[in-house]
Amino acid sequence: MEALQREIADAAVFEDEFRFDPEPLTNPLAASAAAATAETDVSADSATSQPTVVGVDQSFLTNDAGDQDRALSAVVAMRGGEVVERVHAVTDLETPYIPGLLSFREGGAILAALESLAVEPDLILFDGSGRIHFRQAGIATHIGVVRDVPSIGVAKSLLCGRLQGETDNLSAGTRVAIEADDSVDAPEGTVLGYAVQTRQYDSPNRYINPLYVSPGHRVGPETAADLVLGLGGTYKLPEPVRLADQYATEAKHEFLD
């Protein structure tokens, strides 16, 4: 599995390679202007001119003994800030939990859910790591390469790498580079991604931790950070991932009732 991850990393493209203009997604003002233009231009098909951004999150189901035996992948597709489709898929867990090898445990459910989408994703955001990974092949990279779709990893904790600055009580919009160290199968000093502060409290007595954002495939690290900030709402997580997380909880109840 580790050898396959190295092959995945070799196939991954850690720079911008989009089939759409990412600027409206990274710049809310540009997005508003584009929407206004689409409304006034009768030749513009506003339903299809904007990229489809997909959020992916995972949940797990247990058997009668209380052991996790199935993975549930929830996928939410958005276009122009609106949800256009939601799907989920459940597959059996065939690989034990091993840090750094989660794509082999959870990837089947994710691929099954993505296959059932009627819309075609232009960009996929994962609740998990991309290039910030021991072998530069987190779940966002693995699935991004398999599907050959631009992808971004959005993790809540730092798996590996070295922060190039303090991350305590950062102001919203701040980013801190994360570079490869000797725990990562990459030249030391390679920028793997960024700690991105999407939201912050006004109070000096409490603070929100940053997200750890990295390119999965066909996205550069700076653009990945820009996109996560641009796709944010009023919550810490970018909206596609937040809604996928919410939908994963909702879909899980179908199997608990």
UniProtKB/TrEMBL annotation:
Catalytic activity of the protein: Endonucleolytic cleavage at apurinic or apyrimidinic sites to products with a 5'-phosphate
Any Pfam family matching the protein: Endonuclease_5
Protein keywords: Cytoplasm, DNA damage, DNA repair, Endonuclease, Hydrolase, Magnesium, Metal-binding, Nuclease
Sites marked Interaction with target DNA: Y97
GO MF, one example: single-stranded RNA binding
Binding residues annotated for Mg(2+), in chain numbering: D57, D127
Keyword Magnesium among UniProt keywords: yes
Superkingdom: Archaea
Subcellular location: Cytoplasm
Keyword Magnesium attached: yes
Function: DNA repair enzyme involved in the repair of deaminated bases. Selectively cleaves double-stranded DNA at the second phosphodiester bond 3' to a deoxyinosine leaving behind the intact lesion on the nicked DNA.
Family: Belongs to the endonuclease V family.
Protein name per Swiss-Prot or TrEMBL: Endonuclease V
Source organism: Natrialba hulunbeirensis JCM 10989
